[in-house]
Amino acid sequence: MIAALAQHAVGAPLLNGGIFVFFVLVTLVIVFRASHRTKTAADYYAAGRSFTGPQNGVAISGDYLSAASFLGIAGAIAVFGYDGFLYSIGFLVAWLVALLLVAELLRNTGKFTMGDVLSFRMRRRPVRAAAAVSTLVVSFFYLLAQMAGAGGLVALLLNVTSKTGEALVVAIVGLLMIFYVLVGGMRGTTWVQIVKATLLIIGAGMMTAWVLGSFGLNLSALLGEAAAKSSHGQAVLAPGLQYGKNTMTKLDFVSLGLALVLGTAGLPHILMRFYTVPSAKEARRTVVWAIWLIGIFYLFSLVIGYGAAALVDGGPQRIASMPGQENSAAPLLAYQLGGEVLLGFISAVAFATILAVVAGLTITASASFAHDVYANVIKHGNLDPDHEVRVARITAVVIGVLAVLGGIAALGQNVAFLVALAFAVAASANLPTILYSLFWKRFNTTGVLWSMYGGLISSVGLIILSPAVSGTSKSMFPSLDFAIFPLKNPALVSVPIAFALGYLATVLSKDDTADPAKYAEMEVRALTGAFSERSLTATPEVIPSQPRPLRQPMPAATVRTPVIPVNPLIPVGSGGSSADSAVSPPAMTPAAPTNRVFRRRVLIAGGVLAGVVVLTVSVSMSRVLASSPQGADTTPQIGPNTASDAGPEVAIPALGGVIQVGKTPTFVAVSPNGRHAYIANGKAQVVTVVDTAINQVTATIPITAGPPQFLAFAPDGRTLYVSIFNDQRTVHAIDVLDTASNTVVATIPQPARPYLAAVSRDGKRLYIPNHDTASVSVIGTDTNTVIAEVKVAPNPHWVTFSRDGTRAYTANHESNVVSVIDTTTLEVLATIPVGASPHSIAVHPSLPLVANVNYDGGTMTVIDTITNKVVATVPVGQHPQDIAWAPDGRFAYVVNEGSNTVNVINARTNQVTATIPTGANPTSIAVLPNGRQAFVSNLDSGTLTVLELTG
Amino acid sequence: MSTTERIGGVGTPPPVDPWAAAHTSAEFAELRRRFRGFVLPMTAFFLAWYFLYVLLAAFAPHYMAIKVVGNVNIGLIFGLLQFVSTFAITTVYVRFASRNLDPVSSQIRGRVEGGAW
To answer: Can you tell me the distance from the alpha carbon of A672 to that of A677, in angstroms, rounded to the nearest whole number?
Structure first.
């Protein structure tokens, strides 16, 4: 079993790398083949309007099913259950807005960008500028999210863990994306999307069939198994786990629901896709295909998400503890089902997804800048389309570089937050304006500017003032607090603001009347598609090459609308010399040599790019190969499928200083959110609180019942259980401490000395080892009364739960065994002999392993919890009293009371890699959840030793 | 399609203001009435239906947790019904548009592009 797990993590990156390279090469070929058909503005921006509805529908699904959507939704379902499903419904229903209200009308009235439609009957320059600002903001946030996500995803799949490695990945994604966009334009990226979306849906379909098949096509059985594997139990099948905490989180969810349903039809990179088809009818078919594909895909995601919870070894807890957290659910399930090949396939599709989506976003942003800002605002429309495309290409490079830099800066940021931001801005700034200008005759330029900038400023402003940016430990700036707006998602407020501002500004600006004739024209065009249809029967390459009268749209256009020489519409009202068809004939002859040069450049660029990719992948492979043989023959490897393979083999924590915490610190525990360390000062009869951000004592809580000895946090961190007893054995109790107020709210009398207790993963049970009665008391945390008592071997010292909460382990000091308790039946399932005087015990964060230290034996033992056998015994210092795992599972830390040291043990090789001095009589250790620091309590020095675990 | 050729550059710009003429025509009024008569109520319906679901999920999770068949609860059925309604509205709209909108709109388009107004 362990060997199999070991193989998994070592082999997968190699194969992933190979499949990645293959995918990248295939997409490069596609893009390159598309390049020789990308000549005109319409080719570059709109793929010559040559795609059919179904093709574009597949491509738009590809755009929409970004990595965040693909990995994120399945992962959210795996970890949070039903609440993940809610996302997908918002994402899907949103398409009805696009289908009924936006797609066809937009297709008929615009040319390349959202600015085309909005400026149709308004004063063009300010409106185009506003549309471009909004487009750039939305696209840029979306791009940052994808880039940061790419770093995290590839880190997970290729086992790249260093910051430099992730930054390199982001840079490669950026380079490839720039290449796609420059060479392939919209046509190339569309084809990449089509290929990728097809593979994605097929892959997801296979996994869905596989999961359902293994449950006999019984959805109910699948749900039951997922609930059984989750520490939340049946709660994963109903809404509320993620958003049900209080009224604010519920309102936050409603706000998110609003942003999702209205944001989709305002996303510029989705809107732009409607221009790649020849007619409104094809735009309609596009949306219909997209709705079916996206809907079916989200149904797959439901099964994949619950399937991952039910089938992946270690269940949702292990998924949440992986480097990519819930994003790893679909890849882990793929590995579980189809081994490395399916894992590699799914991973490569996910990677291709990121590439294709960032390419589409970059085209959109570059088109908006070149077409709206440069050509129409700066150059007043006096710019020939060739020049415009050149500007767009340069812009794409600039945006690509900015996105790489921004993506590297955003690494580690919450990707979902950035995506939600993009949706909220799109729903607030874009959609109200689009709907008003399509459906409300009186809407005018003032209205456009107010609704657009109003929506943009209110949504971005409210996000800045929200808890997503400051005020909580999960915020972007956790140390600052200016969060005066309670919701993380602003749409509930900013969308109504945008609608109201658009209405009021229009009604109040009486002298700013939109041209009624232009409204008539726009409405007729929107509903009929007059002068904007192009035949599908004529293939795109044929049209430009046909002999054509010389282009002369200018005079005619000037007659009609003298102020704006180049009408943004597809046919310039001049008998239809649209930009796309008009530029091509002259380009045919003189451009041929340039084309050849261009193609040669493309080839060189392609070669360089492929070289970079191959180099990177081989470097990552060689690292994997270099690290794997070392541990290959040491039989039980620990921690192989964590990040261990890519990280350093030896970590020497640095001494990070000493915190004075008062006399007799017997035990230290870190709150689940990592913000505080609580110290039990035994004989001093206080519990001391240290703020881990500043490493200073911030509170001292008197414990009047007796000397506090051990501390156990409830999983939500709100309650701390304090084990109390004295040397005379006259006092034994558990104090219930409320961490919000830092006061003792209850005292539970105990029959014997309570040693280290533990709260079950669902927070409902408290297990207390009764040192003197050889039993474990099970207490209900709601009533604080004993529900059951489990007899174990004498002198249980320590109790802890398995990741999935189904087992409890006790270290029994005088009988030299570890007991395994089934938490459902409360039976002792196994009694495992370990070393002399097992004292403390700790469950590995992701693998089926438990380690304990043997106080008199001077060893650490490692137990495989599947076989319940000891698989390793590691000599450590004298009188090891406590043990903790690093959160990533790569190292164990053992505190030696007799030697005044901490040993660092490499979980792969089971060898002590470092020994660090502590204060006098170190008794316990607690590691921050982020793995950066650990605290050791020094009983006789009255201090905590701080260990800097990284850097 | 004959319009292709026209767009390709052979056609002449329609005289005076064909848009206003088309816009005031009875056919166009009928087209707009049919279009808005379908999409606006349908939008109101699906938004109401969607927000009913969102609000129930947010504020009545215990109702959503009631089991119907095996482990399948009201929430899951409600969610799946959102998929069903989305697919159904899509299908109904496509059928409606191709029967009631497309013939009228292509007729008007032909007249606008053909300079009949």
So the answer is: 10
Q: How far is B98 from chain A (nearest CA, A)?
A: 9
Mean pLDDT across chain A, nearest whole number? 78
Cα–Cα distance measured from residue A767 to residue A187, given in angstroms and rounded to the nearest whole number: 62
- pLDDT at residue number A549: 35
| Bridge partner list, A860 | A853, A874
| pLDDT of A546 above 60 | no
Q: Taking the CB of residue A607, how many other CB atoms lie within 10 A of it? A: 11
A636 pLDDT more than 50: no
Distances (CA, A) of A572 to A113, A463, A533, A579, A621: 16, 41, 13, 8, 56
Q: What is the ipTM of this complex?
A: 0.86
The sign one gets for the Cα dihedral A818, A822, A823, A827 is negative
Q: Closest residue of B to A223, CA-based?
A: B71
Q: Rounded to 5 degrees, what are φ and ψ at A832?
A: -110, 120
Instruction: For residue A591, name the pLDDT band (cuts at 50, 70, 90).
Output: very low
Distance from CA of B41 to the nearest CA of A (A): 11
* pLDDT tens sequence across A721-769: 999 998 888 889 999 999 988 889 889 988 889 999 999 988 889 999 9
User: What is the pTM assigned to this prediction?
Assistant: 0.62
**Confidence tier at A38 by pLDDT (50, 70, 90):** low
pLDDT in tens, A281-308: 888 888 899 999 999 999 999 999 899 8
Cβ–Cβ of B31/A101 closer than 8 Å? no
Distance from the Cα of residue A339 to its chain's centroid: 24
Instruction: Report the first-to-last Cα separation within chain A, whole angstroms.
Output: 34
Tokens 């004295």 found at: A726
**Which percentage of chain A shows pLDDT scores above 90?**
22
Cβ-based contacts of B39 with chain A (< 8 Å) = 100-101
Considering CB atoms only, which of B53, B80, B93 is closest to A100? B93
Tokens, residue A138? 């939305």
> Alpha-carbon distance B102 to B107, whole Å?
8
Flag whether pLDDT at A473 surpasses 60.
Answer: yes
- Tell me which chain A residue has its CA closest to the CA of residue B75: A238
Amino acid at A773: T
- The token pair that represents A497 in the structure block: 């603001």
A144 vs chain B: nearest CA distance in angstroms? 29
Contacts of residue A247, defined as CB under 8 A and 6 or more positions apart, other chains included, come to none
From the list A99, A439, A529, the residue facing B90 with the nearest CB is: A99
Which sign, positive or negative, has the C-alpha torsion A541, A544, A545, A548? Answer: positive
The amino acid occupying position B3 is T
Say whether B28 sits in a helix, a strand or coil: helix
CA-to-CA dists, residue A720 to A668, A678, A680, A757, A823, angstroms: 12, 9, 11, 10, 21
Q: Could you tell me the end-to-end alpha-carbon distance of chain B, in angstroms, rounded to an integer? A: 20
Residues of A in contact with B22 (CB under 8 A): 520, 524, 528, 530
The answer to whether A575 contacts B20, with C-beta atoms less than 8 Å apart, is no
In this complex, do B71 and A224 lie within 8 Å of one another by their Cβ atoms? yes
CA distance B12 to chain A (A): 5
pLDDT tens-digit map of A146-177: 877 777 677 666 666 677 877 887 888 888 88
Contact A576 B58 (CB under 8 A): no
CB-CB under 8 Å, A223 with B7:
no
Nearest residue to A338 (alpha-carbon basis) of A220, A208, A221: A208
Q: How many CB atoms lie within 10 A of CB B42?
A: 18
A-chain CB neighbours of B93 within 8 Å are 99-100
Q: A287: which chain B residues are within 8 Å (Cβ-Cβ)?
A: 90
Selected for mutation to probe chain A from B83, B84, B104, B106 (highest A CB count within 10 Å) is B83
